[in-house]
Amino acid sequence: MSGNHRDRRSQPQRPQSDILRPLRRRGVLVCSAQSAVAQSTLEYAILIAVVISALLSIQIYLKRGVSGRLRTSADSIGDQYAPRTTSANVTLKVKSDTVTTSKLKKDQSVGGQKVDVMETETKINQETTERTGTETVGPLGTNLFD
Asked: Quick check: helix, strand or coil at residue 112?
């Protein structure tokens, strides 16, 4: 090697704190491992706070949705039935488009005996139910079925 140039391999390794010392002296912020962990923890805390605030802000909408679905389910069940206080005048009409096919199979073995077996298949294509009339439910008493 010539003159003033020194081989980098021949230079002793300085500790990391010595390498960063000139940067700290000049006012440059150097991030250490502890401050990186602290920043990461702070970011997680902020993320959790944002998620919690979002859940709290939509809480009212969730409550209304659940109560609306509960009310719909309760309305579809209908009123409570009490045999002594319920009166009804209801007409129920059922219309159905049904196809039934039957096949007779002769000399089938059932339980060790030869018998004729009728095989039936029913297919419902369309079925509608129409309910008209009124139903009145009175207050429930203490002795419902006496």
From this structure: coil
Q: Write the CB contacts of 133 (distance below 8 Å, at least 6 apart in sequence).
A: 88, 89, 90, 91
Q: How many CB atoms lie within 10 A of CB 138?
A: 12
d(CA 67, CA 73): 10
pLDDT digits (tens, 9 = 90+) for 52-86: 999 999 998 889 999 988 888 877 776 666 666 77
- State pTM to two decimals: 0.29
Helix extents (H) in the chain:
16-25, 33-57, 59-77
Domain ranges of the chain: 12-80, 87-133
pLDDT at 103: 92
